[in-house]
Amino acid sequence: MSIEMDRRGFLKGVAAAGIAAGSMGAVSAFADEAAPALEPTEFVDVDMVVVGAGAAGCSAAVRAAQFGVKVALLEMAAFVGGTTIFTEGMTTLHSHFHKDNPAIDIATEKMVKMIQDYHHWLSNGHIVRQMLEQSATNLEWLESIGFEFTEPQTMCGNTYHTWTMYKKENENDMSGALYVKHWGELVDDTFADQIQVFYNTEGLETKLDDEGAVCAVIAKNVNDGTVTQFNCKAVVYATGGYADNPALFKELVGFGEGEYQSNGAGHRSGDGIIMGRECGAKLCRYPSATMWYGGCLPGIVYGTELYCATAFQPLLWVNENAERFINEEYAEHNFSFSGNGHSTQKRVVSILSQAQMDMFVNEGTIYGCGAYIWAGSKLDGSVTGKAMWDEYQEQLDAGNQHIYTGATIAELAENAGLDPVALQRTIDAYNGYCEAGVDGDFDKPAIYLYPLPEEDGPFYGFDLVPGVFTTVGGLKINDRTQCLAEGDKPIIGMYAAGCDAGGLEGDSYDVAICEGSKQCWCAYSGKLAAEHAAATIFGKEVADEFANPATW
Q1: Is residue 1 very low, low, confident or very high in pLDDT (cuts 50, 70, 90)?
Q2: Rounded to an integer, what distance in angstroms lies between the CA atom of residue 47 and that of residue 538?
Q3: What's the rounded Cα separation, in Å, for the pair 471 and 31?
Q4: Class of domain 7-289+472-536
Q5: pTM
Q6: Domain ranges within the chain, ordered by starting residue
Q7: Residue 453 CB: number of other CB atoms within 10 A?
Q8: In what order do the strands lie in the sheet with 290-296?
Q9: Could you say which architecture CATH assigns to the domain 299-467?
Q10: What is the CA radius of gyration of the chain?
């Protein structure tokens, strides 16, 4: 598999395709839950089926192949990787990078407590600790099969650094392009004798035998409709969650089509979660846990210069009543909490002055935007290839109805459909906080208090809808990634990995505490599922230097 598209080209393609809630055709997987089972016309015998070829699924397939397990890897798209191409790195503690620079490391027990406090002790502490304890070994395993990483970073200003970044081939590539490319090479070539990849194939149903153990997976080729039964003894669900399934998102999170914007490569239809539920697998405590990333101007995607300016700066946001509702410092420093705040409002408008917009171009941003735009970068096109003002003009030319201007605050309010008296009252109070250096509403640090005086106009308003990177709630699992039925009894041969597995999060993604935790979990949980299945179902000796030390 090759990825020849650079980051700019990919973002442009995503925007043109309108990848957002409801933009894909995979909703049928949920809508067809009650439909009669399709009769297979083809039968394939394998040991294990992995549903989904993102990082979690590829990890499971490759690790199983290392122990001689024969794998069928099913992928709805025509390529591996999915939304993993957008990701930037993963959590590691005590890795060789940290040994070279101990000052950026943190004790495991301290990190566990911080994560659990963040989640109000609603996440599975055993899973959290196990992942962290194995994070360095997980990294070493990935390096042993050809992946390359660079030194750990921090996005949220932490003194410790957990965010170990993927190496990139070219500066303008998507952050996960080389990482995804190598997964493709591993499953298509290196381990082709043990892994058969079935592209354009959607998982539909898991069959259990009379003892309640996995015995087959039914799947359909989305191009020609061919239905295949894969006879197997184990299945790993790794379909990336359900961010692109509006019906399932509405059921579990409460937001319907058009009420949120999903940022990714599509195809995250929740097939694994649906298939598991149909067999009696339980959902975790918070299946609604979502990796919100704050607000997003409809029509643009995360990582562009206009997105960075309008949604990821700690300036002023107001709701439908023209009132502040959150400490805007969370814009990047805890984008998950920022997204939570956005999701509680009927409407959010980002308010900026001409002076602030010009500052981003001429002097640089206050915050960055993940690994795409670093703090202090000038939004003049030098970072992404498309300048903030050029993207702004493109949106105006395309008729984006979510952008407003006004020579004065009153005119902006009128054009944006906000109460001008209420907006002026909010801005007067906010300007007072800026002058005093004390935020009397939400205690935003003085360094992020930028006033909006009338002389800094004209003014701009941008509607922001809640943005979703991925869902992080899913099927309830134990610390072996086995799916659990009533009474927390494991379903033999059934595993969930990555975003199909719930329990790692409480009700929010812990980006401000443990940067890169979800990608670490994807690679680690896929690896762990494969190791447990190889040892307990297929009788393989799982004892190399990268194996989890647990005794199965």
Answers
A1: very low
A2: 8
A3: 19
A4: alpha beta
A5: 0.88
A6: 7-289+472-536, 299-467
A7: 13
A8: 261-262, 465-471, 290-296
A9: Alpha-Beta Complex (3.90)
A10: 24
